Amino acid sequence: MPTAREIMTPNVTCIGEKESLAEAAHKMADLGVGSLPICGDDNRLKGMITDRDIVLQAVAKDRNPADITAGELGGGKPVTIGADDDAVEILRTMAQHKVRRLPVIDGHQLVGIVAVADVARALPDRPVGDLIDAISE
């Protein structure tokens, strides 16, 4: 069974917790991604932010994304997976928390992101189909 380290996307770009949502949106556009991990000055993971978060929590509420920090919007304890956790644990965690992406942690360091697509490429169809059903409920 593959581990998170084996199927993750490494070298993930963070948005700083003090950077604005506008800066986060620009980074997402430049990178072609829909989410970014939020990292503190100590390089530790502080949360995750998605393009949907920016739209629903800022734009749709007529708030200026340049005036809101990523840390303000993406607070709380992020759901993560350990680098050496296997694909079964990845699927279980994604389904339990209804998320499509998980930051991969080795000790206290962010080392990558594992997405549903990464798991889909690494496993037979049935477990991935079950995950999609669980997330979509």
Note down, in words, how this protein is organized.
The chain contains seven helices and seven strands, in the order αββαββααβαββαα. The longest helix has 12 residues, at 125-136. It has helices at 4-7, 21-31, 51-57, 70-73, 87-97, 116-122, 125-136, and strands at residues 9-10, 15-16, 35-39, 45-50, 81-82, 101-106, 109-115. It is 41% helix and 22% strand. It has 137 residues and is α/β, with parallel strands linked by helices. It has one domain (4-136): CBS-domain. It is globular and about 45 Å long. The protein starts with a helix and ends with a helix.
**What integer is the average pLDDT?**
87
**CATH homologous superfamily descriptor:** CBS-domain
In the predicted model, the low-confidence regions spanning at least 5 consecutive residues are none
Biggest sheet, spatial arrangement of strands: 1-7-6-5
CATH class: Alpha Beta
Q: Which characteristics define this entry?
A:
137 residues; 7 strands; three-stranded mixed beta sheet; 7 helices; CBS-domain; alpha/beta; single chain; four-stranded mixed beta sheet
